[in-house]
Amino acid sequence: MVKLLGMSREDVREAIKNGDVTIAVYGLGKMGLPLAAVFADNGAKVIGVDINERVVNSVNNGENHIKEEPGLDELVKKNVEAGRLKATTDGILAAKKADVMIILVPTLADDRGNLKLESVYDVAEKISKGLEKGDIVITEATMPPGTTESLIPILEKSGLKLGDFGLAHAPERTMTGTAIRDITGQYPKIVGASDERTLEAVIGIYETINRKGVIPMSSIKAAEAVKVFEGIYRDVNIALANELALWCEEHGLDAIEIFNAANTQPYCHLHMPGAGVGGHCIPIYPWFVINLAKKTNVRLIRTAREINDSMPRHVVELTVRALNDAGKPMKGSKILVLGLTFRGGVKEFTKSPAIDVIRELKEWGAEVYAYDPLCTREDAERFGAKWKEDFKDVDAIVIVTDHREFKTLDLKEIAAEVRTKVIVDGRNVIHPEEAKKLGFIYKGVGRV
Ligand SMILES: NC(=O)c1ccc[n+]([C@@H]2O[C@H](COP(=O)([O-])OP(=O)(O)OC[C@H]3O[C@@H](n4cnc5c(N)ncnc54)[C@H](O)[C@@H]3O)[C@@H](O)[C@H]2O)c1
Question: Which segments constitute the UDP-glucose/GDP-mannose dehydrogenase C-terminal domain (predicted)?
Answer without folding.
Answer: 336-432
